[in-house]
């Protein structure tokens, strides 16, 4: 019986090549995109799920302040983990990870590397998480304060195939680090990454030498630079924990009354944010929706074409019933026919997925691999294929198997109104999705170009910048050298990256500050040339002059002045980081973070030495010369390091990388959705023309013009597209407003966007339909009448 | 075998019943050969379809092999039908996508008969109808007479007790028609009951009884 089903199905597919090709290509394209997106989504959800204790691990975060000044700090102080483990029985263990900023350059023999991803951590990192030590002593990973644990990749880099254990790497010629353990490289879907791990004892030594008011890692609540994880007892209640943690905190530092603790489950830390704002989840959600939309559009094509053409199969169905087919048997036949079609579509789409994967990775910033041995790939493939198969097979199968044989044989089955209505609804759904995607594409494009064209409040053109590393101690000499070079017209330096700076401090006070009030300021340490260099405007007072007194001078931006409620800021006393100073000027607001965020309060302070970044002004034509000169200078001081520079323009564009990428992906997906919808429309239009061949013939004989015939055929479809537009406009308006909400500075969605999107949709549809309509209209009526 | 009691069939047009069949009483014994005649629109085909359970009467009782068809459920009816009845059409109505062999085999498939058994049965009937050489051809590659032969073979493959034929020779030339009628005669001699609808006096003469229909009523039986 099955064999027979397949045979019939195969012959039907071969006999109707045109529709088979339309169906298979629509499904294959839809499945390809669906599978690619779902693989991406699956990868996003797989983050940090691979540890055996994932369920019981929580990341600690601080929620500070209340109301509008509430802030989320994703890193905690060092002491809280230790205190929690000691005092709360439900906490089995704690892990702290803190970025290493003390050493930059690492040497073994004649090999020299800069290692940007190094961290201090507790030994529990290797027991709480599944980052097992594969070489070395697992029970005591850091036997000495200068012990280090490195990844396999790092070990290979330094020691080749030699046994790394016991080898000594010297860091900045200041300390000898002894390799005591090797761990496997971190999986790509781990939020915790790193190449080299130092002991907390070393951090203790580095941080708390000399006079430190008795502070140490177990009681420090000043420095919030530790990613802290707690391992909880299985089944432990979490609800009272934040309170307990707060009490422990206040027990040590009683004036932090606005501190609060939140527990972020390990598995959620990649996609969620504790303050409820959208983390990566927003993108994941959007892509799931797009994947589903595209798959549904592909299904609709199949359903529409097969139900429309069911009339042509009415005779076959009736005959089968008359020779004794039960309804279930017919139902199965049609399901198998669909399934066979799906097999071809699936094979094509798997091939496409395989070949498109590298491009998709480039697009999406992932490193997905099509590994057919990995069961997770099959999970996605099965969900996509069977989901769509079920959706698109059941209705046509029910419809076809339901024909009453006598009526069907006499051709009286003539499209039941409800069927036609159903198909119309499906076409409307398809085009509604398409119009939404077109609108989205236009709006994303507009917003991105708006952001790019916005006035930043400073001049970032042709500015070359790099981290000075060892040059900072010789900044004056460097500056004197470089300014003489042709192609470099101006030089300045600062301790921040001006394009995207997120640092904040609450350590400040002024006359008029209320008790308990916290004002978070972004401190920007600059030399005297910084403000003129970037053509920033000083609206009141004066810029730094380089005089000795500048070390007690501050310049606030307008937002900071407003936040501190200073009526006459210039001359006002201000204290920051223990420096009692005076405000000498107010700078016009400028953007130092992404346009997603509102301009934050910022404060310039004068920093005569020890800068981190140098900025060189050049011109478009002179840029190569400036780079060459900078590199020569670099080699004098930083011989061991690669020269990595960037232009602020590029850095600025990088800020919107994820948006640009989203925009690009969106374009591609919208194009594909429209393509698939048009395939379906094309098929339906062909079918309509085919069924109405006789009518068209008669009309032409009676004197109808070609234009009249085209209108006759196209007008029904155009009506449907218009309905789609009417439905799509409010939906896309709502959705895109949501998307724009993320930006502090955004465009207004005007009517023109919808007019344009609607016009495009109609245009595309008309072009699609006219292919068939024109063909039918110009056909010789004698021919079409004869075939009847 | 068949017992029709006061069978009527009507359709409602503008609120008034329009009779296609009215008060038909008919009984057919096993092994009979009956011809139904009458002008166009007299209800011949409708009567045949009612007997063949492809259509339902509006009123009246229908007993088939002792079963009250009018009160049977769809499933039971289809079971009965599959077991006892074969249908032959004027327009042959073969499935274009299937070969001769497969067309004949189809009813067996729907009766869940095993593949080896099917092969034997189909081979047997192909042989009997002398169309073995045509078994891999598609219907469109055959002449009308050959197609009708296949249609009859298909109707007979499941060894029905009753063969219903709606103008089986209507699309054939007289020589082909004669062959088909002789085949019917032979089948009838083997014990298959046959009810045929026909316009041809000559073909009707093959039957043991001729029922003349006029305006939905049985006008005469001879």
Report on the architecture of this protein.
The complex is a heterodimer of chains A (788) and B (222). Chain A has 23 helices and 24 strands. Chain A is of the alpha+beta class and 788 residues long. Chain A folds into 3 domains: 1-47 and 275-414, no CATH class; 57-268, no CATH class; 463-653, no CATH class. In chain A, strands 1, 2, 3, 4, 5, 6, 7, 8, 9, 10, 11, 12 and 13 form a 13-stranded mixed sheet that branches. In chain A, strands 16, 17, 18, 19, 20, 21 and 22 form a 7-stranded mixed sheet that branches. Chain A has a 4-stranded antiparallel sheet with strand order 15-23-14-24. In chain A, a hairpin with a 3-residue loop joins strand 9 and strand 10 (175-183). Chain A starts with a helix and ends with a helix. The mean pLDDT of chain A is 84. In chain B, strand 4 (59-64) and strand 5 (67-68) form a beta hairpin. Chain B has a 6-stranded mixed sheet, with helices on both faces. Chain B has a 4-stranded antiparallel sheet with strand order 2-1-4-5. Chain B has a domain at 2-93 and 160-221: P-loop containing nucleotide triphosphate hydrolases (Rossmann fold, 3-Layer(aba) Sandwich), CATH 3.40.50.300. Chain B has helices spanning 44-51, 74-84, 100-110, 115-128, 144-156, 174-189, 201-204; strands spanning 2-13, 16-28, 33-37, 59-64, 67-68, 85-88, 162-166, 193-197, 209-214, 217-221. Chain B is 35% helix and 28% strand. Chain B has 222 residues and is α/β, with parallel strands linked by helices. Classes of the chains: A alpha+beta (788), B alpha/beta (222). Chain A binds chain B through residues 1, 4, 7-8, 11-12, 15, 315-316, 319-320, 322-326, 329, 405-406, 409, and chain B through 49, 54-55, 75, 78, 81-82, 87, 93-98, 102, 105-107, 109-112, 154, 158.
């Amino acid at each position: 019986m099955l064999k027979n089903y397949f045979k019939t199905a195969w012959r039907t597919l071969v006999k109707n090549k045109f529709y088979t090709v339309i169906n298979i290509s629509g499904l294959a394209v839809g499945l390809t995109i669906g599978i690619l997106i779902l693989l991406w989504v699956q990868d996003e959800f797989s983050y940090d799920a691979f540890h055996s204790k994932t369920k019981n691990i929580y990341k600690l975060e601080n929620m500070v302040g209340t109301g509008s000044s509430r802030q989320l700090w994703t890193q905690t102080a060092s002491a809280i983990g230790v205190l929690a483990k000691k005092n709360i029985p439900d906490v089995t263990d704690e892990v702290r990870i803190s970025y290493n900023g003390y050493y930059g350059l690492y040497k073994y023999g004649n090999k020299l590397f800069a290692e940007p991803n190094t961290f201090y951590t507790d030994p529990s990192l290797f027991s709480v998480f599944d980052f097992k030590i594969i070489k070395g002593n697992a029970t005591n990973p850091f036997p000495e304060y200068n012990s280090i644990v490195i990844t396999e990749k790092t070990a290979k880099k330094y020691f080749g195939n030699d046994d790394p254990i016991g080898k000594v790497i010297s860091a900045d010629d200041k300390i000898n680090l002894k390799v005591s353990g090797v761990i496997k490289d971190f999986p790509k879907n781990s939020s915790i990454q790193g190449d080299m791990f130092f002991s907390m004892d070393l951090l203790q030594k580095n941080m708390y030498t000399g006079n430190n008011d008795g502070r140490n890692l177990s009681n420090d609540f000043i420095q919030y630079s530790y990613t802290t994880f707690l391992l909880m007892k299985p089944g432990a209640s979490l609800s009272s924990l934040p309170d307990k943690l707060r009490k422990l905190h206040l027990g040590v530092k009683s004036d932090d009354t606005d501190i609060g603790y939140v527990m972020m489950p390990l598995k959620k830390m990649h996609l969620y944010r504790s303050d409820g704002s959208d983390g990566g989840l927003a993108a994941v959600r959007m892509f799931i929706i797009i994947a589903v939309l595209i798959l549904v559009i592909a299904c609709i094509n199949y359903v529409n074409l097969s139900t429309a053409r069911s009339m042509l199969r009415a005779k076959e169905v009736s005959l089968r019933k008359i020779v004794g087919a039960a309804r279930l048997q017919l139902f199965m036949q049609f399901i198998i026919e669909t399934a066979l079609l799906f097999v071809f579509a699936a094979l094509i789409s798997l091939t496409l997925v395989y070949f498109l994967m590298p491009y998709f990775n480039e697009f999406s910033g992932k490193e997905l691999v099509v590994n057919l041995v990995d069961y997770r790939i099959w999970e996605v493939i099965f969900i996509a294929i069977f989901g769509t198969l079920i959706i698109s097979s059941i209705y046509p199968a029910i419809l076809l198997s339901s024909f009453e044989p006598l009526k069907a044989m006499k051709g009286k089955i003539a499209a039941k109104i409800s069927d036609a209505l159903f198909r119309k609804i499906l076409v409307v759904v398809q085009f509604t999705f398409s119009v939404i995607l077109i609108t989205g594409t236009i709006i994303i494009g507009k917003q991105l170009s708006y952001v790019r064209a916005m006035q930043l409040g400073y001049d970032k053109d042709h500015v070359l910048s790099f981290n000075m590393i060892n040059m900072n101690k010789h900044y004056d000499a460097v500056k004197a050298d470089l300014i003489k070079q042709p192609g470099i017209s101006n030089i300045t330096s600062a301790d921040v990256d001006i394009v995207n700076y997120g640092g904040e401090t609450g350590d400040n006070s002024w006359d008029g500050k209320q008790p308990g009030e916290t004002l978070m300021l972004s401190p920007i340490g600059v030399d005297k040339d910084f403000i003129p260099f970037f053509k920033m405007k000083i609206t009141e007072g004066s810029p730094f002059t380089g005089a000795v007194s500048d070390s007690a001078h501050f310049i606030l931006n307008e937002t900071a002045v407003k936040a501190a409620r200073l009526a006459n800021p210039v001359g006002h006393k201000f204290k920051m980081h223990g420096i009692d100073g005076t405000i000498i000027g107010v700078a016009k607001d400028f953007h130092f973070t992404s346009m997603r965020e509102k301009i934050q309060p910022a404060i310039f302070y004068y920093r005569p030495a020890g800068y981190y970044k140098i900025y060189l002004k050049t011109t478009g034509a002179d840029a190569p010369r400036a780079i060459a000169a900078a590199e020569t200078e670099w080699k004098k001081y930083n011989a061991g390091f690669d020269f990595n520079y960037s232009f602020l323009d590029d850095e600025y564009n990088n800020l919107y990388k994820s948006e640009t990428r989203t925009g690009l992906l969106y374009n591609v997906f919208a194009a594909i959705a429209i393509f698939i919808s048009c395939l379906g429309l094309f098929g339906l239009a062909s079918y309509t023309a085919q069924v109405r061949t006789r009518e068209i013939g008669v009309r032409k004989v009676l004197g109808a013009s070609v234009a009249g015939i085209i209108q006759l055929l196209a007008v029904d479809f155009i009506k449907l597209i218009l309905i789609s537009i009417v439905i799509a406009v409010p939906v896309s308006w709502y959705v895109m407003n949501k998307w724009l909400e993320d930006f502090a500075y955004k465009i207004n969605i005007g009517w023109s966007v919808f007019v344009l999107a609607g016009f495009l949709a109609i245009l595309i549809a008309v072009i699609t339909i006219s292919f068939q309509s024109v063909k039918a209209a110009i056909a010789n009526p004698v021919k079409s009448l004869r075939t009847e | 075998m068949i017992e029709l009691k006061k069978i009527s069939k009507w359709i409602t047009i503008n609120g008034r019943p329009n009779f296609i069949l009215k008060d038909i009483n008919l009984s057919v014994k096993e092994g009979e050969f009956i011809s139904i005649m009458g002008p166009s629109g007299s209800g011949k085909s409708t009567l045949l379809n009612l007997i063949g359970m492809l259509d339902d009467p509006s009123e009246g009782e229908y007993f088939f092999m002792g079963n009250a068809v009018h009160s049977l459920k769809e499933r039971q009816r289809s079971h009965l039908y599959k077991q006892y009845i074969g249908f032959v059409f004027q327009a042959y109505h073969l499935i274009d996508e299937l070969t001769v062999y497969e067309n004949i085999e189809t009813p067996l498939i729907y009766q869940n008969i095993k593949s080896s058994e099917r092969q034997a049965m189909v081979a047997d009937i192909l042989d009997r109808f002398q169309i073995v050489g045509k078994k891999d051809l598609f219907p469109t590659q055959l002449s009308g007479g050959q197609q009708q032969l296949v249609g009859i073979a298909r109707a007979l493959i499941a060894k029905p007790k009753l063969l219903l034929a709606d103008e089986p020779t209507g699309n054939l030339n007289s020589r082909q028609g004669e062959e088909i009628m002789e085949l019917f005669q032979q089948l009838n001699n083997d014990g298959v009951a046959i009810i045929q609808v026909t316009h041809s006096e000559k073909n009707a003469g093959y039957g043991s009884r001729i029922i003349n229909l006029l305006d939905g009523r049985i006008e005469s039986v001879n």
